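# nightly structure sweep
# worker-07 picked up a monomer target from the shared queue
# config: single-sequence mode, recycle default, output format = structure tokens
# input follows
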Amino acid sequence: MGYCQVIGAGAVGLAIARKLAERDGTSTLLIEKHESAGTETSSRNSEVIHAGLYYGHDSLKTKLCLQGKHMMYDLCRRENIGHRNTKKWIVAQDDQQWEELVKVHKFARSIDVPTRFLPLQEAHDKEPDVRTQAGVLESESTGIVDSHGLMSWLEGKFQSLGGETAFNTAVTGIEALPSGGFKIHTTSDGGDSEPVTTETLVNSGGLFAVPISNMILPESRRLTPYYAKGTYFSYSASHPRPNTLVYPAPRPGHGGLGTHLTLDLSSPPRVRFGPDVEWVDDPNDYKPNHSRLAAALDEIETYLPTLQRDAVEVDYCGIRPKLGKLGAVASGKGFQDFIIRKEDGFDTFINLLGIESPGLTSSLAIGEYVDGLLYR
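# output follows
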């Protein structure tokens, strides 16, 4: 497995490529269709370092999020990558939502993730503008990270290890070779490039991972991609401005975690809201949908009742790669875990599908996991 190719230079692809490039005797090429790394899902998200509260026992999402969270904090401290342990509140406004918080807390205790219920008076004293009608659960290990700073460090480290990048290079076809390995067909700058061969292939194509997988797998094993578009909203008013992340109680079966409040790393931190969930057919549909604003405002007001509605504006969109219209939390039906596996009949092909949240948090751990699939 001396020659490796990784398709997709998002946070996960960069982490995988960097990990593979650390091995002596390997030559790793990172292929990216855009002109720079991390221009899709990796740069259009909330930049949250997730605690691992929602994904159930024995899931890859839980395993890799827990490992990745610790690796992320360690790396950011060591390499001075922007981050902050903000903590997170999950808030309940009625008995049903309270029951969801209790489930999250019990699960967190079972996997040794620190959470605690705040007395309502303490919550009011800390964040008087946040409504916590039925209760609030604090996640102590949640934070935020400068995703661009992280990806810049990963790209630089990969290149310093001798890794090569091919930007503006789109994969148009893949052939499995009878003798083993793969022939990759690409276009670059609008024209066909000379095909290249590789012993080992890693599909970390994000939004386009399913079409890439379908180039290799037989028809009976091909999948249909789904796309969950999420709109984010900016906030220009000086009040209210909480100092912690605020999430509504999880809704089983919902495609996201609710239109939550997050912060950035500026001083003082800027508030933003989102994402919501809108199912779309086009993975390139980044045009903000202003019709989403009214419903988002109503949801935000459930936990931030003094919100100045006219200070909230549609900002930007991100798209999450899905494998169906499935839930984001394990407590409901239809939960979709990460798929990261060697495909039967293709021992040197690692397929990563449905790598949505908590993909950024998990990215460093995914790099190690893929390395382990190939070399252990």
